[in-house]
Amino acid sequence: DAEWGTAIEPEAIRAIAKKTQPVKLIAIVHAETSTGVQQPIEPVSEIAKEFGALLLIDCVTSLGGIPVKADEWEADILYSGTQKCLSAPPGASPITLSEKAVQALSERKTLPNTWYLDLQKLEAYWDNRRAYHHTSPISMLYALHRALAITLTEGLENRWQRHERNGKALQKGLEALGLVLHAKEAVRLPVLTTVRIPEAVDGDLIKSELLANFSTEIAGGLGNLKGKIWRVGLMGESSTADNVLFFLSAFGLLLRKHGFKADVTAALESAAETLNV
């Protein structure tokens, strides 16, 4: 457990692992969209090895936007989604398993209580056994193939740098507007920014007017942060300098309309400096 907006400290994970030995699996979210936090994975990987546990990493939001190092992290199970930084339609989940994870699946004594997510049945469907499991969503596979081709054409390093640059520009611009970012700077995601809603500002009204007047949608807070923050995604093909500047202009105008003294000029200048435009 951790304060929302901060990373989970490795020692907290280690302490729980010590209490609950033996530990079969440690699961962690790499890019936490509820809080805007990028969780450092290397220390968690070391703890998993220390306790002989499998390491499962949720990379739904991070794949294609920030570095995902499955081999370096020695991840046993790593999965993602197609709809975020890969900019493909939703509906598929890329996944990779280590030999250790495959062995654990084959040795399990209790049958899975799910058909849809039974990885052994999925393996038998995809390998040379071709055992029936489902009707493959062919259109999704073509869409993912095209999205990956676009990603590789841009180059992974270039793509990561684009997300980093645009994310920082957005965040600097939001701060120049006079707003406070929620996630701690050291672990702040570039692809999803959490912004605290100022007092006396109706967060839901700003969201609805942003959508109605500027065709731009942002999300609100979840759980402990419901009604306290906005969540602004900047992922995949939507992560552009033009979108950063457009959003800051529109957002600032709406904030001013509703009584918050947002400095739109300062926000645009700050973002433009980071974007070098």
Automatic annotation (TrEMBL):
One of its GO terms (cellular component) is peroxisome. Residues 20-207 form the Aminotransferase class V domain. Pfam families: Aminotran_5 (PF00266). GO terms for molecular function: alanine-glyoxylate transaminase activity; L-serine-pyruvate transaminase activity. InterPro entries: Aminotrans_V_dom, PyrdxlP-dep_Trfase, PyrdxlP-dep_Trfase_major, PyrdxlP-dep_Trfase_small. Keywords: Pyridoxal phosphate. GO terms for biological process: glycine biosynthetic process, by transamination of glyoxylate. Its cofactor is pyridoxal 5'-phosphate. This is Aminotransferase class V domain-containing protein. It comes from marine metagenome.
